[in-house]
Amino acid sequence: MTVTDYINLTRVRRSLKLLSGSSLSMPEIAERCGFSDANYYTRTFRKIHGSTPTEYRKSLQTPAKSSRTREANSPAEPGRNDGLPV
Fold first, then answer.
1. In a 3-state reduction of DSSP, which class is residue 14?
2. 12 near 53, Cβ under 8 Å?
3. Using one digit for the tens of pLDDT, what is the confidence trace for 20-43?
């Protein structure tokens, strides 16, 4: 993992909290997490998480069966439940 990969992973993890716990817009979340461009944030989020930030936020409103299965099958790590690589 490169330094840039680690920084982007950390930024995306922070954005997961903002996506689930606020009604901020995508550009606002991107800026608060250190992305200078909302489009770059969306591309980076998709690369790391496998969905766009908007898709992720919508999935929180209507949980899909597949996401519950993935959470149940992922190894437990105290304090982490975001499904992202360590």
1. helix
2. no
3. 999 999 999 999 999 999 999 999
Name the pTM for this structure.
0.70
Residue with tokens 């550009």: 27
CB atoms within 10 A of CB 10: 13
Distance of CA 20 to the CA centre of its chain: 9
List b or e across 25-52, with b for residues whose CB sees 16 or more CB atoms inside 10 angstroms. ebeebbeebebeebeebbebbeebbeee
Residue with tokens 């608060």: 32
Number of H helices, E strands in the chain: 5, 0
What is the 8-class DSSP label of residue 50? S
Domains in the chain: ranges and CATH? 3-62 (1.10.10.60)
